[in-house]
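lol ok so funny story. i was supposed to be doing the assay writeup but got distracted and ended up predicting the structure for this chain instead. priorities right. anyway since i did it might as well share w the group, maybe its usefull for someone
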Amino acid sequence: MKKSIFALASVLAISGPSFAGETPSADEAEVYFINLNNGDAVQSPVLIQFGLSGMGIAPAGIDKPNTGHHHLLIDRPPLGQGEDGTEELDYALPADENHIHYGGGQTEATIELAPGAHTLQLVLGDRNHIPHAKPVTSQVITITVE
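and the output, tada:
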């Protein structure tokens, strides 16, 4: 009986659905801003170019190893622990004014930002908009829109 339960559990573990944060990333993967640096002063609309090394880009919904698509986080704390105490890295990123999805595989965007200081962070998401098991995130940068 114990062997049957173990065998069933093993099969379910291998063939079961993919849960949050289980898509692997490449060890050397890095996401970064190509044309913006911390402390830059810019004009709106702001062109933001997304850089990625060590992995490839694939649109949301496409299941291809070592790929993902970009998400831009604006004016929020670094990705990690949510305000409600849940681990954000285990769930699909929301889509709102602070979490912009580029699920079409875009590698740049032009966005309108109000004058003032704004924080930006890039996060690579898997086919389901979930950060990879080893998250691929940029440093948080602050830019000032003049």
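The first strand starts at residue 30 and ends at 33. The radius of gyration is 18 Å.
back to the writeup now i swear
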